């Protein structure tokens, strides 16, 4: 039995029986044959180079800082209010903390090899559970990739796309065609680029991870600074009737008020209303479903366990650090949004 032996009793018993049934000659074979291919190839293995920060903290932060932090913080605070928004984050992070603690317990209870979550689940529960849960984990990654692609398309069209509402005049830099089929085309192109990266190899992403991390941190810093340097001004909104076909039930302007106590008091409590674009009535559950997407991605560091110097040391510390950092960031962004932007 070794540190990599599965943890279930029946798996332990099987491993013990296997080890006892092996002949002593087979166990001594590597010592008797020092010139065997296995012996010669072991020095040629590449060392694991990724540390806690580059191997776990950076990938986990990049996965958890999803489209929610850039596009949906205002939606959460505007619908649920600051109190319920913070409560949603507490509930969401309590859920993922249970998963993080389970990952920490498994990763520190024995040696880890390549395979990430599948390896840890298979080692703890056996390959039957590992295979089924691994399939669900794969499908979840597929849905998460679609969410991130659509978020990128929305951000691009919101900045460079021609407004779909004919009442709005496009600016000089808004030149990209907009619409449902155009969004589908842009998303397909981005998904194909991601497929190309996967086909070429993950080392391309590994080399650019730190640069992407610096860009994300720079953008977050600019967001925090903008709350203090941008002066109060009205924001022009597309007509709500253009999206939900319900008629002009909402005004077409909103206000960025800057830091005002009146604005904060108006955003403390929930004010669920009809969604601006879909025409559906929002509730605690629907807003929480949108917000929870920003709390996923905690397995990004565990998935590259084969590339870490010390997975049992790096995964727990790196994952917990990333979770705490993202939680503080989300709470600060929610408070700043509640202090400076009216509910509309």
Automatic annotation (TrEMBL):
Protein name according to UniProt: Amino acid permease/ SLC12A domain-containing protein
Q: How does it sit in the membrane?
A: Multi-pass membrane protein
Keywords in alphabetical order: Membrane, Transmembrane, Transmembrane helix
Main site of residence? membrane
Do the record's keywords include Transmembrane?
A: yes
Superkingdom:
Eukaryota
Biased composition (Polar residues) is annotated at 13-26
Q: Which PANTHER family match?
A: SOLUTE CARRIER FAMILY 12 MEMBER 9, SOLUTE CARRIER FAMILY 12, CATION COTRANSPORTERS
Q: Which organism is it from?
A: Ataeniobius toweri
Q: Does the keyword Iron apply?
A: no
Question: Where do transmembrane segments lie in this chain?
Answer: 50-74, 86-112, 133-160, 180-202, 209-230, 281-300, 320-338
Subcellular location per UniProt equals: Membrane
